[in-house]
Amino acid sequence: MVFFNSSDYRHCLLTGFPGLEVSHPVLSILFCALYLIALVGNSVILVVIWVEQSLHTPMYLCLSMLAGSDLGLCVATLPNLLQLFWFSVHEINFNACLIQMFFIHVFSLMESGILLTTAFDRYVAISNPLRYTTILTNATIAKIGVGLLLWAVAVIFPGPFLIKQLKFCKANVLSHSYCLHPDIIKVSCSDHRNNSIYGLIIILITCGMDSVFILHSYLRILITVLHIASWEEQFKALNTCVSHICAVLLVYVPMLGVSIIHQFGKCVPPVVHVIMGYVYLLVPPVLNPVVYCIKTWEIRTRILGNLQL
């Protein structure tokens, strides 16, 4: 077997749907529609929040950051996916693959942190409404957003350089139509335990901790709501959290599924890897705007009002 240093390793091969190559042009229509929904939906949310002064509140600033991270995920992956399905271009330059991997994981970690911020926002709004405007201001949310970006960049930054230390062979076919850290290190022909440990640590200190604190926030919210005497007020309080709970499930369930498939799915058919990869990539950006537009009255009325004009 021929080995290559990363400096000599020129390209990886992206994977579409194995065995359905002749159907790729048809499948591309579906993916274009999904990407269009994601791009338009998240852009509309950003524009509505930007234009409407009444929506310049911490909750909607968190929503705008979530929409921005979803747009980042779409922009980072769309060009390669279209090349693959429209022109059957499977090759991607190794350095370009690392850059794409970097941005996908940065935006994913930001999404997780934003969901934690929104959970804390809902906890303060329900548990301590009188101090809400003093605890969470727009400036505070902006600082949190910048902090999340810097944190995500800092923890993902070593990843590409660690991969550069690995040796690769000719078995360079990735499991998805985009580049992920666990997928790239699997095609290496050298010991990648350090990379695997690094990836596990990143997951634990970011998404793992975020999910624990999100769960803790909602347990505290539930305890607070149960102490409210009026059933109507209980329903009203919980209803403000529904869209956020849906967003949490849309992000963490696919993320957990992809992680399980990569760790324990060696005997799983390749098409399952591909499908889970697309679920992880497309479900949050496509459905988050839909959920927030349906469940958030202020967003829905602003959009409908502008359409009527």
Descriptive notes:
- By secondary structure, the chain is mainly alpha-helical.
- It contains twelve helices and four strands.
- The protein has helices spanning 24-51, 58-87, 94-127, 132-135, 138-156, 158-164, 181-186, 193-226, 231-239, 242-264, 270-295, 297-308; strands at 4-5, 11-13, 91-93, 167-168.
- The strands form two sheets. Strands 1-4 form a two-stranded antiparallel ribbon.
- The longest helix has 34 residues, at 94-127.
- The model has no long low-confidence stretch (mean pLDDT 85).
Give the gist of this structure.
This protein has 309 residues and is mainly alpha-helical.
Which percent band covers the strand fraction? under 5%
How is the main sheet built? 2 strands, antiparallel
Mean pLDDT: 85
Task: Report how far the terminal alpha carbons are from each other.
Answer: 66 Å
Strand order of the largest sheet: 1-4
**H and E string:** EEHHEHHHHEHHHHHH
Strands, total number: 4
Number of helices: 12
Catalogue the unreliable spans. Answer: none
Structural class estimated from helices and strands: mainly alpha
Shape: globular
